[in-house]
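To whoever is on call:

I kicked off a structure prediction for a single chain this morning and the downstream step that reads the tokens threw a length-mismatch warning. I double-checked the sequence; it's 141 residues and nothing unusual in it as far as I can see. Pasting both halves so you can look.
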Amino acid sequence: MYQEMILQHYRAPHGRGLPTGPAVHEGARKNPLCGDDMRVGVVLAGDTIAAVGFEGRGCSITMASASMLTDAVRERPVVEARALAAAVEALLRGEVVREELLGGDLRALAGVAAYPQRVGCARMPWLALLDALEEARGTRV
């Protein structure tokens, strides 16, 4: 489960720190059982995620997943980010996901599916992202 890619993202996370400014939309999730908490912030430029970042604390899987998320969704259209979140969800359920849906480091999360008690850790940043995108949708004029 603790593949080298997960450890690399945990030790040196990408996208740490929330974007700033009035146009930031945030989503937050917390696991009261273990104390992990995560906030994900996005700034949209039209229908594209122009900036994304996170802050929080959690286990290596939570933090690595958040780091991978920022790399994966930055400068992507919102619709693609939502599809990517669904693909990660499927991967964490142990389903086969087409390679073109999950490029880059995200494949490393596949090993988490073998540990059901840790799946929530990997999901947390993605659920916070979806919450942030929902908040953004609610503020559009």
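Update from on-call: the warning came from a stale cache, not from the record. Cleared it. Sanity check on the structure: Helices lie at 4-11, 60-73, 78-92, 116-139.
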